[in-house]
C-alpha cells in the first residue's frame, strides 16, 4: 500500500506543481488541479476497495494520515475555484467577501474544536472510532462530500482531517489576498509586474532562502515579508510554501544555513576570476 500511495502522491505533486507554475489564471489553475486530484482520488479509491488492510493499525494510518494528505488539496482547489468565480468587483466588496469566508472557516473550526484539538495534538485514544470503517457515528459521518459516500472508502473523520488541512491552506490564501487589498488597494499590486514573467529554475527552498535574506537586509524597504513573497511568486511564476514561519524555522535548523547564498557567492567569484 505504501508503495502505491507514495508513488501516486509523487505523481500528483509533480502535476500540480506544473499547473501552479504555469502562466494561467487562478481560476484555470484551480480547475486543472481539481481534475488531476479527482483522477488521483478515483485511483486511490479503486486501489483501496481491492486491498485488504493487514491490521487495524494500517487501516487507521491510511484514513488518518495518507488519504487526507492526498485529498485535502482537492477540497482546497474546488473552494478556490468557487471563491474566485463568485468574487465581486470593487476593493471594499472583495475585502468583505474574503473576510466572510475567513469567518466561515473560523466558525467551522470552533464548532468542531474538540476534534481539531484531538487531531492537532497527535492524540490516538479515539482512533478506533474515528478512523476505522464500519463504526459509523451518524453525527460524524454525515459531514462528507459526494465522492466519499461509500462506507468502504470512508470513516467517521477522515474527511474532517482533510477539511482541517484544506482550511489551513485556504486561510493562508485568504490572508494573502486580504493583505494585498489592504496594502495596495488592488490585487494586482502597486509594484506593477513585468510584461513577460520569468520562471525560477532553482529549487523552492533556494528561493525562500533568497527572499528571507532580502527581507532580513531590508533590501526592498519596509514592506511586509508576505507582500514580498507574493510579489516574487508572481514575478518568478512559482508557488511557495505559504507558512513563512515554518519555512524560516526549516532554514535555521539546517547544518549549512545558507547553501544557496554560498553558491551564488562562489559563482560570482568565479566569474570575477577571483576563485
How does this structure look, described?
With 275 residues, the chain is mostly helical. The protein folds into two domains: 2-184, no CATH class; 204-271, no CATH class. The chain has twelve helices and no strands. Helix 2 packs antiparallel against helix 3 (56-85). It is globular. 20% of the residues are buried. Mean pLDDT is 84; it is low at 185-193.
Looking at this protein, list some descriptive labels.
12 helices; single chain; 275 residues; 2 domains; mainly alpha
Q: What is the compact description of this entry?
A:
It is built from twelve helices and no strands.
On the 0 to 100 scale, the average pLDDT is 84
For the CA atoms, what is the radius of gyration? 21 Å
Strand content: under 5%
Question: Which runs of at least 5 residues are low in confidence (pLDDT < 50)?
Answer: 185-193
Report the strand count: 0
Q: What number of structural domains do the residues give? A: 2
**Biggest β-sheet: count, sense, barrel?**
none
- Which geometry do the CA atoms define? globular
Determine the fraction of residues in helical runs and give it as a percent range: 55-70%
Number of helices: 12
Coarse structural class? mainly alpha
Compressed to H and E, one letter per element, the order equals HHHHHHHHHHHH
Oligomer: single chain
Give the CA-CA distance, first to last residue. 50 Å
Amino acid at each position: 500500500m505504501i508503495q502505491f500511495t507514495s508513488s501516486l502522491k509523487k505523481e500528483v505533486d509533480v502535476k500540480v506543481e506544473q499547473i501552479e507554475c504555469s502562466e494561467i489564471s487562478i481560476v484555470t489553475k484551480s480547475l486543472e488541479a481539481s481534475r488531476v486530484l479527482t483522477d488521483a482520488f478515483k485511483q486511490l479509491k479503486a486501489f483501496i476497495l481491492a486491498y485488504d488492510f493487514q491490521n487495524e493499525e494500517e487501516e487507521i494510518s491510511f484514513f488518518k494520515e495518507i488519504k487526507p494528505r492526498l485529498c485535502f488539496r482537492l477540497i482546497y482547489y474546488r473552494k478556490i475555484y468557487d471563491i474566485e468565480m463568485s468574487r465581486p468587483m470593487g476593493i471594499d466588496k472583495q475585502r468583505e467577501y474574503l473576510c466572510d469566508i475567513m469567518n466561515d472557516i473560523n466558525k467551522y473550526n470552533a464548532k468542531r474544536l474538540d476534534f481539531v484539538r484531538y487531531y492537532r495534538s497527535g492524540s490516538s485514544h479515539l482512533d478506533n472510532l474515528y478512523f476505522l470503517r464500519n463504526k459509523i457515528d451518524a453525527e460524524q459521518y454525515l459531514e462528507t462530500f459526494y465522492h466519499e459516500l461509500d462506507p468502504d472508502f470512508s470513516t467517521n473523520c477522515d474527511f474532517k482531517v482533510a477539511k482541517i488541512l484544506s482550511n489551513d491552506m485556504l486561510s493562508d490564501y485568504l490572508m494573502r489576498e486580504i493583505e494585498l487589498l489592504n496594502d495596495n488597494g488592488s490585487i494586482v499590486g502597486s509594484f506593477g509586474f513585468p510584461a513577460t514573467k520569468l520562471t525560477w529554475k532553482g529549487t523552492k527552498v533556494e528561493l525562500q532562502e533568497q527572499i528571507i535574506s532580502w527581507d532580513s537586509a531590508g533590501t526592498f524597504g519596509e514592506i511586509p515579508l508576505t507582500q514580498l513573497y507574493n510579489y516574487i511568486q508572481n514575478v518568478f511564476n512559482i508557488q511557495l510554501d505559504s507558512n513563512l514561519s515554518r519555512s524560516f524555522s526549516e532554514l535555521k535548523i539546517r547544518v549549512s544555513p545558507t547553501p544557496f547564498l554560498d553558491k551564488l557567492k562562489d559563482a560570482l567569484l568565479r566569474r570575477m576570476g577571483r576563485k
